[in-house]
Each structure stands twice: as C-alpha cells, then as structure tokens.
Amino acid sequence: MRKVLIVSPSFAPVNAADMQRVRMSLPFFQQFGWDPVVLAVDPRYVEGVQDPLLLETIPSEIPVIHVKALSTAWTRKFGLGNLGLRAFPFLHREGRKLIRERKIDLVYFSTTVFPAMALGRLWKRETGVPFVLDMQDGWVSDYKQGRKRDELPPKFWFMGRLHGMLEPWTMKAADGLIAVSRGYIDTLHARYPGLREKPAVVLPFGAPEEDFAVLQKSPQANRFFEKADRTGLIHGVYVGRGGLDMAPALRIIFKALRSGLERKAELFGRIRLHFIGTDYAPDDRARETVMPVARECGVEHLVSESPRRVPYFEALQLLADADFLVVPGSDDPDYSASKIFPYILARKPLFCVFGERSNVCETIEKTRGAFLFRFNGVEADARVAEELYRAFAACLLPFPVTPATDWVAFSAYGARESTRLQCEAFDAVLAGAADAKADVPKRATRVRHA
Length: 450
Known about the structure:
With 450 residues, the protein is an alpha/beta fold. Helix content is 38%, strand content 15%. Residues 440-446 have low confidence and may be disordered.
C-alpha cells in the first residue's frame, strides 16, 4: 500500500474549514490503496474555536503527528500571526523526517495555510517525493485589489507580497492539483503553463453524512434560539463566514424580507434570521459584516449576527434546530461554498442566493436540495429579491416543508466518492513521476470534473 503524508496544519480538534476534506476522507483512503499520515500543528498553538467531538470522527489507526509553532503571545508583538509562518521550521523538520522514515510516496497539502505549501518544493528537492496541492481558495488573487484600506484584512500588503513570491516558486514544482473550483485551476494554468501537463481535478468537499449520526448520539446546546419556538417565531439560520463579498446576496435576502413585511406583515414579522460565526478572526477581533447590510435594508429588527465562530457540531445542531436555512454566496465567481452539503443534509427548507457562475449552482440543480436564486449584477437584484420573497411566502407556512432532494444524485457527492477521486489523482501523479523517471514523453492531462 502506498503512503501519503497529508499536511493539514489546522487539524481537529481545531474547527477550521480547511481541514474538513481531510477529516471526512481519512476513513476511506485505505480502501483505495493509500495509507495516510497526517502532519498538523499542535492545537495549543492554533488560534480559533476547538470542538473535541471532531476527534471521535478520526479513525484511531490513522497516525496524526503534531508539531509546535511559535506562540502568538509574543509573535503578535511583531505583527506575526500567520500559522504557516509560525510553524514553518517545525513542519519542515518533522515532515522531512516522516518522509524518510515512513517511506512516503506522495505529499498532499490540503489547507488554506498557504505558506506551508512551499514545503512541498523543499521536501521534493531534499527527498524526491512529489506533491499535490488542494486549492480550497485562491492563493494569490487580485479580487481584493482596489478596495479601501478598512475593507482589507490586517497585514494585507505584507502577506500579498509574500504570497506573490511563494506561489510561483511552489507551483513550478507541483506535481498535481485538486481544487474546489474550475476557476482556480484555470488561473493557475494561465500563470504557470507547465501545470497543464500535470493531473488536475475539480472536486468540491464531500458530504459529511456520518456527522449527523454523531450529532444524534451527542446533541449540542443551542445558545441562540429556542427550537420549535412557543412564541410562534420562525427561525432561519446561516452558520459560516460573512464578508463584504457577500453583501450583494445579503441585500437580495434582506430586500425579500422587507417586501414580506410590507405585504404580509403578520407572517414575515415572525421571522428571525440568525447569522452565526461570520468572522474567522479570533474573538477579540471578530467584526460584524451582516448587520450593516440589514440596517441598510431596514430589517435589522429581524436579524441577529454573532461573528464569533462556534464549534463544528454546535453549528450542525443549529442547522438541525432551524425552521429554515439560508446561504448567501459571494460575488467572487470562483467562490465555492463547501458547507452546502451539511445544509442539504439538515433536511430543512433551504434558500440559496449565489452568483450565477458559482459551481454550487450546478450542485444544487443536480441534487434539487435547495431553492436556488442566481444573481449577476445590480440590474437583476430587484427581480431576484422578488422571486425570493415569493418563495419565502409560499414555503414558510405551513411547517414542516420537506425538501424534494434527489438523494441518489446526492450520493455522488459523498465523502467516500470524494476520497476515491482524490486517490485517482494521487495515482496519476505517481504514474507521471514514474514516466518522467523512465524518460517517457509527457502528455497533457485534461482537467477532470468530479
């Protein structure tokens, strides 16, 4: 059985979105001929919310190796918080050791801690082992260029310059790509033509079917609203990041609510929309990005926002307790909402507002797991808001409304199938590496869609 070293710095019990693909895939790698070892940073050195229940979903036989990192207690005095930089020398040393001692065949980076990806080229130079990058987000992007200073994350200029150096240095040695969006692969192929000859797969996150079974055995507290509210309130929930890029979708949602208040005040006045965990920043730096749009649209009395992140299984509990769910999408055309599958699995009326080019639209259309509303610009927003208002009015009474999800189609998005496709990419990388060693001419590998 071949061995893969998976680099996922923010790993369980840390509740980080970028480790979910690995966590859900670990039970299945060995079924497809790959024996995984996970390299992560000790949770004590990782900022963010932790959920110990996540550890129950990790197979006990899978080794998870932890390393130290520089503590933010003193690195933030110098303006350094990035986990990839704080842990870089520790990951480098331990990874090189694991590759040699465990005879690793391939290294797989599945993370948005982008500086850590540069280790792939270092280790390849030192050991000859190929590496695959999982692009869950854009490493270097011009999407935020031109924004006002207060709309940009801290250290934007510094990290932008650093990423601008590390991405090309790393990509020129990469042996394969997996990405949640076709746009990410297209961008990288345009920047680095040599990558066109390497295996590349477009693959959304797998659906966490087993997590809801875990939740049933270990119900979590709901700190935000009362399930089956005896006062007659109707609770809608969104758990996930916010941001300025979601403002167009939020305006559509809030304008639909405003229309409801004007036309069906008795019904829409009972709605309470809860936006939870909308900022990735630690508690003391988390800021609201949803409430300003709600106030702009005049529905702030129906909306609440708690920007602080919540543990993963508490988030699932909120989805399970809600009367209905909403998911606003980004105006970034390459945005892929990896969290869409837990929303569908919650089996509640689900209203999604996404840019028309988002690959989430195709997923929803195939599974019929949600009411989908596409936006493409200011001109169409009023029309989309009207469509959403009508959908709200038709579905909010009577409860419960059972979504007409096509569960056969949905099965194609399961964690096992996602793992199989990852392993196919690994196999293709090793086959290409073997051909290169045998001096066999390379052929371009077409981008595959899962």
